[in-house]
Amino acid sequence: MTGPIVVINPNSNQAVTDGLDRALASFRLTGGPAIECVTLTEGPFGIESQLHSDQVVLPLVDLIARRSDAAAFIIACYSDPGIDACRSVSPVPVFGIQESGLLTALSRADRIGIVAIAEASEKRHRLYMRRMGVSSRIAGERALNMTVDETARGTGTFTRLQEVGRALISDGAEALVLGCAGMAVHRAPLEQVLGIPVIDPTQAAVSMAMGTVLANQI
Amino acid sequence: MTGPIVVINPNSNQAVTDGLDRALASFRLTGGPAIECVTLTEGPFGIESQLHSDQVVLPLVDLIARRSDAAAFIIACYSDPGIDACRSVSPVPVFGIQESGLLTALSRADRIGIVAIAEASEKRHRLYMRRMGVSSRIAGERALNMTVDETARGTGTFTRLQEVGRALISDGAEALVLGCAGMAVHRAPLEQVLGIPVIDPTQAAVSMAMGTVLANQI
Amino acid sequence: MTGPIVVINPNSNQAVTDGLDRALASFRLTGGPAIECVTLTEGPFGIESQLHSDQVVLPLVDLIARRSDAAAFIIACYSDPGIDACRSVSPVPVFGIQESGLLTALSRADRIGIVAIAEASEKRHRLYMRRMGVSSRIAGERALNMTVDETARGTGTFTRLQEVGRALISDGAEALVLGCAGMAVHRAPLEQVLGIPVIDPTQAAVSMAMGTVLANQI
Amino acid sequence: MTGPIVVINPNSNQAVTDGLDRALASFRLTGGPAIECVTLTEGPFGIESQLHSDQVVLPLVDLIARRSDAAAFIIACYSDPGIDACRSVSPVPVFGIQESGLLTALSRADRIGIVAIAEASEKRHRLYMRRMGVSSRIAGERALNMTVDETARGTGTFTRLQEVGRALISDGAEALVLGCAGMAVHRAPLEQVLGIPVIDPTQAAVSMAMGTVLANQI
Amino acid sequence: MTGPIVVINPNSNQAVTDGLDRALASFRLTGGPAIECVTLTEGPFGIESQLHSDQVVLPLVDLIARRSDAAAFIIACYSDPGIDACRSVSPVPVFGIQESGLLTALSRADRIGIVAIAEASEKRHRLYMRRMGVSSRIAGERALNMTVDETARGTGTFTRLQEVGRALISDGAEALVLGCAGMAVHRAPLEQVLGIPVIDPTQAAVSMAMGTVLANQI
Amino acid sequence: MTGPIVVINPNSNQAVTDGLDRALASFRLTGGPAIECVTLTEGPFGIESQLHSDQVVLPLVDLIARRSDAAAFIIACYSDPGIDACRSVSPVPVFGIQESGLLTALSRADRIGIVAIAEASEKRHRLYMRRMGVSSRIAGERALNMTVDETARGTGTFTRLQEVGRALISDGAEALVLGCAGMAVHRAPLEQVLGIPVIDPTQAAVSMAMGTVLANQI
User: Fold this and answer.
1) Neighboring chains of C (3 or more beta-carbon pairs < 8 A)
2) What is the CATH classification number for the domain harbouring A50?
3) Range of the domain at B50
4) Across the interface, do F174 and D135 touch by the CB < 8 Å criterion?
5) CA distance B53 to B80
6) Measured between CB atoms, does F110 come within 8 Å of chain D?
């Protein structure tokens, strides 16, 4: 029997992990892989800087070593922290949600807009997308300029998502990626309001991981 | 209740459709979307030229119009024939297996090799990949130089796949895409022998389509 | 003796064909190739969508087969419909006016602006230019937002062309391509008013076709 | 009445100018623009180095100033020496044969091979093609490794052209550009033998210049 | 003993050469290479056009031939005039200040803004940067729209530098290059006011030249 | 008075630090910045994997915090470990030797070859160069396939360097970067033998750092 898809929230905010869990509820199917959301207890409360991102690399590597039962791992932070290190040690596929979210968006539209939480991460994302070699498909990235925590509970989040989404559409975006692990609850309503595909990156990564697992069962 | 993922074999060879069906068996999960493989009866027996590819566009568009129950469509020919036309008329997502296969491979490795059936399609694929904006990630494409029909039953197919796969690895490939709708049966053994990820593009497209459907059920 | 350059208007609007004919009058030189403008009677009245573009592919292929006397073919619709299919069957060169118009513009200036008829075609053109590998030379594309029919007779067309042309210049364009087969009559006046080269794509394609024919007569 | 297309041979070898003249014979049509081939007497006997290329810039600018009757200029040396300077002073279009040859080849095939005279110019051409933004379409460049003078009369030239052409085809070239002003006589036979389009860059530039002139006569 | 780094001001304005000299004062270190600033007396008073740029090529080549004692040359005009010709004849490294300035800026930030003197040079710089293959790192270029002479003494220069610098920052620039040989005096104050790295291209080129000389002394 | 340039050897092998020190001897000039080579005692004995590279990030950040006297930092490992984290916390410029080495090589030649120590790092470097946006200038990377320790003392190192250097030249390289912090001793002899520029990346980074320091003293 195949092991679970282990979705790692690299920050130590259990509320974020719980949100991930709810966002993946419909992906748990009878006969399909289990999907387990875990919190990296060594992580900071939120990953909001380059340093936060670097601090979780070795704990992530340790967690991966401990979970030898996993069929696949997902690093559920939009900076894809530790993706290279985790891949270098893991015997099973490791998916980063930025990478998976963008690649999935590229299957839905030509030019992609990214909704970031904070402007500070825009440069980190840009370097990562250039490294991915997909920059010619990116219409732009714009930030909500809220903290992860605010977006998680703020009532103004959806209003702000619409504003930023519309700005990205006027930049040329034909699909959006939510650049954060914790906004899945807004995905469907935002897609409805804006009329273009909206991708939750964790759901995108889990889809890809499920594909890997299921392909091995043929 | 959500409709089925309709996987369209755009050639009229029912054996290919049956092969697709078997390749997707493990993707049919209780509670998940139905996956229905259909044959485009108006298609040629195999799609082996640019003209074949163009001949199926309008029949595909018609089929899509008839299947208003579908939750997503998959065009299961590696040339992604009619992808633009189908997307322009379909109210639900349409996935091409070349696009999905490549994007999925990009989530598994940096540089990708493509195993084509015949050399004649190499240029068509190259233009498509340049249009996708992912050329910097492509290590190369090499052809089996067999007909679709030969690959479907030929006992020599697996031997040839290994040869071509090894050549692509020496070109720099770190993951392979099987550039054909009918080679899923060889995916796992080839991955085993070569030691790098091997992607069946129809499975990749179905994973992405499942992700779309399941995300709508949250 | 060499055959004619056959300029195919892929829509069934004879007025457009007649306009092409007038736009090419000065290209008919004694001793040079004949230039024959023909209407694809099977085509829609105007090509204004992806589907229109796909509908003419097989009729174009048939027309090419019938005209075995041609020295070269020109597909005179800015979407270059059926260009791959036509090339795959034609024994003589086939030119698309989008491709020829852009390449000719690249010989006149560094950054090119495209005047489209309708916004809806902008994405189709963008994908085609990315496939051509010339995106780094494109300053932008802007639409008149008129129908083909309106541009053909509208008195406001020239005013609108100037507005859009000036907007493209402020985007960085140093030469313009008229993104339509039916605006040749405005080429010279627009060039005069704007002070930068303006390319009619059908004339550009005919020049290239003439070069092919004449080079064979050395 | 329109003035002539002035084709400038920037080296002082009259035999090369005479060859240009013969290569353009069929482009002289009744009612079309005159085509006049002139020798830059201040030029070196052959342009075979960066320094040679730079030495002709100011004499070219002077020649352009003297020929205010011209309808267009063509700089008939594959290095396109002085193209920027000439364009900055000329009131009429200036075509470089490298640029025109490559752009014309791009209308005939996806990937282009260049046959250079000498390896020493390969780097100069590469920088120019990167500046043009068309590098993704270049299959390769290979040199005959002969002097301009040798190619002009050498009986071994055609044999060597075939060898180099075949090597470029195996590099992926689907059309060739003759990277020299003096090989037009070999164009048609080489195209015949190799089975892919072969472009003489001076003919390509003259076609484009004719297009400019004729478009102004509508 | 090693020879001097010869910094060539290709215009004949001695005040510019004197400014270069002052801008390099701190780079003259005991035991390090001498740094000698020389005026190209054959040059125009300022290099403000393509033609000016081409006029200095052969005089630069001659100067390089005369200075066989040099350990390295720097062409201190932001157009990098004659860089290819000078490199083709010089036995020692030749640095262009545009190239060195941009490469140095790329070591300080991801996206670079260029402050040009005049809009007219923007296209020349753009072509050069595309040829360098670094366009994906350029945020933009904006001009002071002053003459070289004005910038050299104008009291309004610093105010204008701040305006243009702020505009480039809003374009995305994270470091600036002063696109002129004569603005070093403003470098430090501008960096102070804007809060991002500001590169003087002549200082950048001299640093690189010093590195070459010193590496040869190990 | 300005502080020292602090060159950090991120591995704990003091012999490597001592080698860096010797390689920079001639860069220590009276009146210029001090150059101090320090060992990251928390580092592994050699950085030969992705994990090694990630392990030194936080210790590097700590070291930077402790050395508030520094005028600039250099991370002297060719993987540029921790470059983003260090830059995010350092008040002074931080140079990575891969980045500096490549940028410096780009000022010396058009296409660059990289001599890696081990094949395993080739992918890490490729991703980094793609992120830098300079891939179009890279001729190739080839590995010595020796350990850092072997290269440090092996008598066969120079022979192997010549072999690999010649292979890179046949790949098109016109300058080489030594892809390791510990091969400076071979730089000048290799340049002599191969006849093209050879860049030691630590020397390149120190040159750039010196430029930063000296520019602040004008």
Assistant:
1) A, B, D, E
2) 3.40.50.12500
3) 5-97+203-215
4) no
5) 8
6) yes
